[in-house]
Design brief:
Number of domains: 1
Low-confidence stretches: none
Order of helices and strands: EHEHEHEHEHHEHHHE
Largest sheet: 7 strands, parallel
Number of strands: 7
Strand order of the largest sheet: 3-2-1-4-5-6-7
CATH topology: Rossmann fold
Radius of gyration: 17 Å
CATH superfamily: NAD(P)-binding Rossmann-like Domain
CATH architecture: 3-Layer(aba) Sandwich
CATH class: Alpha Beta
Number of helices: 9
Strand content: 15-25%
Length: 254
Amino acid sequence: MDLKLSDKVVLVTGAGQGLGRAIGLAFAREGARVAFHYHSSAEGAEAGAAEARALGVKATAIGGDLRMDDAVADAVERVEGELGAIDVLVNNAAATQRKPFLESTPQDWAPQVDVTVTGTLRITHAVAGRMAKRRSGAIVNLMGDSGRVGESGLLVTATTRASTVGLTRSLARELARYGIRANCVSIALVQTENLVAHAGGADEERMKKLLALYPLRRLGRPEDVTAMVLLLASPLSSWTTGQVVSVNGGYAMV
C-alpha cells in the first residue's frame, strides 16, 4: 500500500537509538525526507541518517537539547533549511527512570519532566507554529502504556507519559482549524538496545514474568510500532485525529 509519504519531511525526536531510529528509517523506506534528532546519541543519529540516504532519500542528523529554547529553535530552523518545511513531527524523545517512588527525589523527577513534558511542548510549539502557517501537518506522539494504566516502579515516568494523552487530544482540538492532526501511539515493552533498562533486568526469570503479562506471549518489535506511526502520519489517515492507539501485545486492554 502506498502511504503517500514520499517526499514528506519528517522530524523524529530522540532518533539516535532504539525505537526513534527505527521510526526514522521506516519513514525513509517510504520515501520521506527524515531528520534524525538527537541529544547525546550523535553517532547513532548520524548512522541512521546515512542508512536513510543509502535508500535514496534526503536525511540529516540534527542535534538539540529539548530543554533549551534556543536549541529547539535552531534545530527546527536547520531541519527546514536542509530538508524543507516539516510535514510530520514524531515526538519520541523522553527521559525515563525505573525507581520506587518513595526512594526517588525531586532531582530524579526533574529530567523526566524537563524532557518528556516541557521538552515535548517546546518542540511541538516550534513546529506546529510553522505547520499552522501552511495549514497542514501531522503530529504523532509516542508514550508508554505506564502513562495509561500505571506501573509500579515507574510512577514518575508514568506521570510524565500521561501528559502525552492530554497533549495529543488538546492539540487535535485546537489545531484542527489549521489542518493539523495529532494522534498518539501508546506502547508496552519493545525489544531495542534499551530493553534491559526499561524492563528492570533481563535475566531468564524476569523475562518469564514479563512475558506472562502479554497475551501474545512476546515483547514488541520495532516494526510492530513503526507501522502504526506511519499510518497515523499518512494522508490516508486524514480523518483520524485526537486518538490514542495502543500497540502493546495485549498488555493492557483499556
